[in-house]
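If you are new to this repository, start here. Below is one unmodified record pulled from the training split, so you can see the exact layout before writing a loader.
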Amino acid sequence: MKHGANISTKMTDLGWNRTIRNMHAMDRAYVMIGVQQGERHKDQDTGVTSDLVDIAASNEFGVERKNPVTMRRKSGGKYLKVTSKKVPERSFLRSTADEQRENIARQVQVIAAAIIDGKMSVHKGLMIIGLEHARQIKRKILMLRHPANSLMTILKKGSSNPLIDTGQLMQSIRAKVHL
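And here is the target side for that same chain:
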């Protein structure tokens, strides 16, 4: 080598920087699947509006509500009769997640590899996972039969499906990606 010869080095990124960027993007991102906050339900009989998150939670975990009812005695005095309404646990979110755990894990592996390789965006990958899981939750709502509705509820709703009345709960199941 001669004294004073110019030597240069050229660095070529073959995708490493993109891979690191995509991994960082995945680290912060997530998808929320289920009933999103702010969804409302209007009771057809009473006109009362409720938060669908509360309705979903009542069915998912079960709840016992005490409903005070004022009644009059013949003498004109009032007394309070407390009745309770029990909504049995009808898990459709947790049970679907448990049943689909292995499928979701496989899907996450495939999609994560595609994101790292730059073949898919983080948003698109999470949306694919979210939409598939939302579809499974809706299927569970349609198929769930136990515990069954009471006869009074069946007569009121005109349906024996425990989780379907107006269809609003099922229609409110969504996937929302957060980056």
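Two things worth knowing about this chain: Helices lie at 16-28, 52-61, 94-116, 122-143, 151-157, 168-171. The first strand starts at residue 30 and ends at 35.
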